[in-house]
Amino acid sequence: MSESQTAPVSDLPRAWPFEEARKLADHVAQRDTASAGGDARPALLETGYGPSGLPHIGTFGEVARTSWVRQAYTALTGRPSRLLAFSDDMDALRKVPDNVPQREMLEKFIGQPLSRVPDPFGTHDSFAAHNNARLRAFLDGFGFEYEFASSTDYYTSGRFDAALKRVLEVHDEILAVILPTLGPDRRATYSPVLPLHPRTGEVMQVKMDAIDPVAGTVRWTDPASGEVFETPVTGGHAKMQWKADWAMRWYALGVDYEMSGKDLIDSVRLSGRICKILGGTAPAGLTYELFLDDKGQKISKSKGNGLSVEEWLRYAPPESLGQFMFNQPQRAKRLYFDVIPKTADDYLAHAEKACTQQAQNPTGAELRANPAWFILKGQVGPQACSPVPFGMLLNLASVANADTPEVLWGFIRRYDAAVSPETHPMLACLVKHAVAYYADFVRPAKTFRAPTDMERAALADLAECLRGYEGDAPDAAALQNLVFEVGKRHGFEPLRAWFGCLYEVLLGQKEGPRFGGFVALYGVGETIALIDAALLRDRQD
RNA sequence: GAGCCGGUAGCUCAGUCGGUAGAGCAUUCGACUUUUAAUCGAAUGGUCGAGGGUUCGAGUCCCUCCCGGCUCACCA
């Protein structure tokens, strides 16, 4: 019944999400046939999130990639599926993050479940609720389709109760699997079940004195007081420790697919074994590589190296970030500012091609192997394309010293009068980003030469002439003549040296646009300010 | 110690079912021009880390090795 036996391999689009969708389809088929009465639940894909911090670029990557597997699964099988974004908000607060207010208040709640820690921002019922809301807003901003799940809700509502009792039944087997992987000191206190302290609410990391699978309780001793407690594992009175928690969740919910970073390879293996002990089947999944910063170091939230989602989106549209995540998930990639332009143009090339492929065969393998088909969630079309590549816009911004989108648009219109922000929304978006990228990365790297005495006099003269010009409607040809006249008047020989001076002193580059046209678009007053600043800057040196 | 990934042009990288090695940038030359420029054309540049195997044919598949990077082994 497996699709892999019926569908010819050559029809499978050659894109990694389809390879993954195949694995997922096989997994679903297997659990359906393995179950006595059949198991026709929708395919369940899960992504995990730890709400001790804010969502970051890795969170985006995992949800985006999982969504693409889901999209491929739908295209491949036509069968229903769900994507569960699971927040482990019952996890204990281990240390106070350094980017939040009220840190001394939070200090008192170390060891408490995140869902019981007050919100330091004061906007939600708990710290976890705050971060969960941030996660949802973040995911919604990208238009992801998902169901949100709170670990605390699942535990307290009893949705995990049956699975938790099952854990007690096979408790010793689970221990036997986990203990050999731990160091001797950790082994002494390890328990897969973590009861919550009935009075303090703290997540207790102590050895269990006794397990009662029939009553569904554990007995343990409070190391602080010596007091002995008998705690039910059900109803949110206890939670599971990390790897066992993952396994229990896979088992309880019947997760069919979950991807994870390569740092979790051992955890996936171990959780899979525990899941099997419980009587379930570990989900299918993909191990992705981690991102590196500009120096090839692993990106971590605490170090703050690499690049945040916000930073990327300042310099390029979200589709380009999707393109980055789509490319070779199993390969380590540098995630830094300088990859943005190339990635953006990669996306644009794919989006362009997708339009053609859509027209030729809207359900063909070629279109479905196109990254843009995934990134655009199947909504391929000219609105997602741009007639001008991003790299060209950056060049243009640099040449024209474009510090506002309007300047850039002036040049673009001269290039093609039919193009406007209204007719080409993607281009409008790219223009804004190109200006930002230029301002932050290109312009600071420019070197502005100091003018010679002769040039200084000519520049002052030009500024004076422009002041006289102010008020009139800017005319490129008249301004060009004016610039030309000033150059001749000051005896530049050849005259091209005068223009070279303008570019090197005012724009910090060897070449530039036709200067009259530049002044008309850039603004007469703005150009005067540019000259004044250059003369002043030189005087201070 | 265990595991993952990589090594292709000066740089960053792509290379689909095994079929004459590609792109961008950089460099050089040319076209366009009141001076310059978004652009276009061309040239230069490779022992595909090394060795062996399979094959009519290997950057691509298999094995061994070398080099580099990362991850895990405390927590999640």
TrEMBL record:
'KMSKS' region (motif): residue ranges: 298-302
Region of interest (Disordered), ranges: 27-46
Protein keywords: Aminoacyl-tRNA synthetase, ATP-binding, Cytoplasm, Ligase, Nucleotide-binding, Protein biosynthesis
Broad class of where this protein is predominantly found: cytoplasm
UniProt-listed InterPro entries: aa-tRNA-synth_I_codon-bd_sub2 (IPR020751), aa-tRNA-synth_I_CS (IPR001412), aa_tRNA-synth_I_cd-bd_sf (IPR008925), Lys-tRNA-ligase (IPR002904), Rossmann-like_a/b/a_fold (IPR014729)
Enzyme class: ligase
SUPFAM superfamilies: An anticodon-binding domain of class I aminoacyl-tRNA synthetases, Nucleotidylyl transferase
Pfam families with a match to the protein in the record: tRNA-synt_1f (PF01921)
Catalytic activity: tRNA(Lys) + L-lysine + ATP = L-lysyl-tRNA(Lys) + AMP + diphosphate
Subcellular location field: Cytoplasm
GO cellular component, one term: cytoplasm
List of residues binding ATP: 301
The EC number(s) this enzyme carries: 6.1.1.6
UniProt cross-references to NCBIfam families, sorted A to Z: lysS_arch, PRK00750.1-2
PANTHER family on file: LYSINE--TRNA LIGASE
HAMAP family to which the protein is assigned, alphabetical: Lys_tRNA_synth_class1 (MF_00177)
Protein family (similarity comment): Belongs to the class-I aminoacyl-tRNA synthetase family.
Name the record gives this protein: Lysine--tRNA ligase
